[in-house]
Every structure is written in structure tokens, then in C-alpha cells.
Amino acid sequence: MASSVVVANGNLNPNDTRGKTITCKAAVAYGPGEPFVVERILVHPPQKIEVRIKILFTTICHTDLTAWQGENEARRAYPRIFGHEASGIVESVGEGVSDMNEGDLVVPIFNGECGDCKYCKCEKTNKCERFGVDAMKKVMVSDGATRFYTMDGKPIFHFLNTSTFTEYTVVDSACIVKIHIDGSNGDLNRNIKRLTLLSCGVSSGVGAAWNTADVHFGSTVAVFGLGVVGLAVAEGARARGASRIIGVDINSDKFIKAREMGITDFINPKDDERPVYEIIGEMTGGGVHYSFECAGNLNVLRDAFLSAHEGWGLTVLVGIHLSPKMLPIHPMELFHGRRIVGSNFGGIKGKTQLPHFAKECMNGVVKLDDFITHELPFKEINQAFDLLTTGKSLRCLLHF
């Protein structure tokens, strides 16, 4: 798929491959940290309550990077197709799928919503009992098998309910969301590129600011870690009218981009021997209303917690923590009035809330274009990983 989209009768029009095993290109990982092998694979048809998607665009999230590096041995499974941030069109649907049709524009989501379990029916959470985020999951729910195979018939494992580093993927219907975007202005292709970001990073960050923290007008905010998720938090806080947004990162080169996306002040912990929370306390008269830990580092988490103001400060944990160590917080410190809470996929219920969230973002409430710093053909996925590893890109959009 080149970076253009075919439209027929108002719908995106995939090839007629319904019910057939598809041969396509995919980036397969054969071991931790090993270069991806772009090769032809077999993708079987969707089974009951599953959907097969033709991927239009996919990007690389930091979670893909750490999973590919295999830092957590318990989560290793090879060969495997990584990737969980993408946009695509429905190629075919399995038995029992009633909320989408072939040709629909969709985004896969790593944190699904079945709509039937006690969690999905509870307005206080976006967790799903059967299809929630699960880094250990490597096969489909319906039969415990994979839908990917090498050309000589060996199974290839799935990743995070999605596996988007492939021309075609199969996902549980609970892990895919139909999105409508306006293509009347002739810019459908650009809008689909932007939509790709909502599959994970931007939704997780903006949602953390809007839903989990509910940042209020005139508030002060500190964001620890200025990757895509951290900058998305800043964008969300800016859109809510935060008066001051302090960015914390050990890479000062990020500040130029960060200022364009809502950060008003920047702290590099390497530039001052004092603890970051002391610096932020001095800057804000005691601490911020909201702090967000987006780095996945326990030492950073403690700084973020102590940067929140006593009595009312809230710390939102957004980063992925692979360390087996526990929270670096003494129970008595919670009696000072600071609070801490985790945020998964920005508190967004995928199927019921993401379409409206996408509409707000597409209408310009959040500046999505700034997050796409590079675009490459899919075959250059290893170069895209290098860009992320070296901190040179936020999101590198890959197209077939």
C-alpha cells in the first residue's frame, strides 16, 4: 500500500480476499533486539468475532521498542509480529461481527472493549475482562491459535491484541474501532495518517490529562518524559487551559519541539544537583496541581510524586514500568494529601468513546501533525527503530 487510499461508494475499498489465506509482507522479529526481517507470511482468515484488517499506516511506540528488546524475559515470544499503533480498513469479518463491515476505516486498540463484561459496563473504568491490555498474550482468544504463519507453515506470535507490523493483521473485534473522518476536503490521506496516532500514544497522553486527571483551567502541570505520550499530555493540558506546563527530560534537544506543543518551562535534571521536585516546588510555590510520570522510571516517579502540591496534588502514572521493584513511596507520605493513580489508554473506552475523541482531535483541539516527524516505506522499519532509539523521532509513519 502506497501512501494513498482508494475510496469507492463512500467507503474504503479493499481487495476481494474474503475467506482466503493472504500472502503479504510483514516485519518479523526472531529474537530480542535482532533486526526485523521483512518477509512474506501467511495470514489466515478471521474466525468467530474476529476481523482482518489491511494496514494503511503504522508507527513505532516506545512499548514496541522495549518489547522488541526483550527486557522482560517472561514476555518474550518469537517469532513475533510487533506493532500496536496503526490505521487500516476492514478486509473481512468473522462470524458474529455486527458493528463493522468490509471497507470501514478502523484503528486497532491494544486495550479492547467487549461491551458485555462487568468492567465494560462500569463507567468508572476502561478495563475489559477478556480483551484488556495483556503483554503476555501471544495468540487469539477464540481458539488459542495464531493467525500468522511463515511460508513453510511455522506459527508467528501476536502482540498486544494488535500486531500491526504487517500488511494484514487479524484482531478480536473488541480490539478494533470504526472511525468516520471527513474526506470531502480532498485531504483524506492526511487525516488517516493523523488518525493512526490515536491508536495508542496520543490517546494515552491526552486522555490522561482530560480523563484521568481532568486538568482544569489555570492549573499548573509537570510532565516527566517528553516522548510522544508526555507531549500528548502537554497538548491535552494546553487544550484545557493550564497556565504553566513544566517539561522534565534529560535530553535538552527536545525542548524546541516541546515548546511548540504546550511546554512553557523546561528542566534537565542533569543541569542542577538539586532534586527536581525541589526545583519545581520553588517555581510553583509548593508544587503543581498535576504531575505526569511518562518515563517508566521509579526514580522519576518519586520526583513526580513529590512535585505535586501537598494537600491537593495528583500524580498520574502513564509510563510503562518493567522493573520488579515496588513504588518508591512511603505509606505515610500519602497522608500529606498527595494522590497517585495509574492511567491506561488515557481512561478511554475504545469502542464507545474513541470515535468522539477522534472527532475532537480531527477538529483541531489537539495538534496532531506535530507528532509525525518522519515518514518511511515499511521496508525501512529497522531505520525507523533507529530513529526512535536515538531520540531523533517522535513518530515515524510507515506505509506499504
From TrEMBL:
InterPro entries for the chain: ADH-like_C, ADH-like_N, ADH_Zn_CS, GroES-like_sf, NAD(P)-bd_dom_sf
EC top class, as a word: oxidoreductase
Biological processes annotated in GO: formaldehyde catabolic process
Enzymatic reactions: a primary alcohol + NAD(+) = an aldehyde + NADH + H(+); a secondary alcohol + NAD(+) = a ketone + NADH + H(+)
Molecular function as annotated in GO: alcohol dehydrogenase (NAD+) activity; S-(hydroxymethyl)glutathione dehydrogenase [NAD(P)+] activity; zinc ion binding
Cofactor: Zn(2+)
Domain Alcohol dehydrogenase-like C-terminal: 229-347
UniProt cross-references to Gene3D superfamilies, sorted A to Z: Medium-chain alcohol dehydrogenases, catalytic domain, NAD(P)-binding Rossmann-like Domain
Residues covered by the Alcohol dehydrogenase-like N-terminal domain: 50-179
Family: Belongs to the zinc-containing alcohol dehydrogenase family. Class-III subfamily.
Protein name listed in UniProt: alcohol dehydrogenase
Originating species: Glycine soja
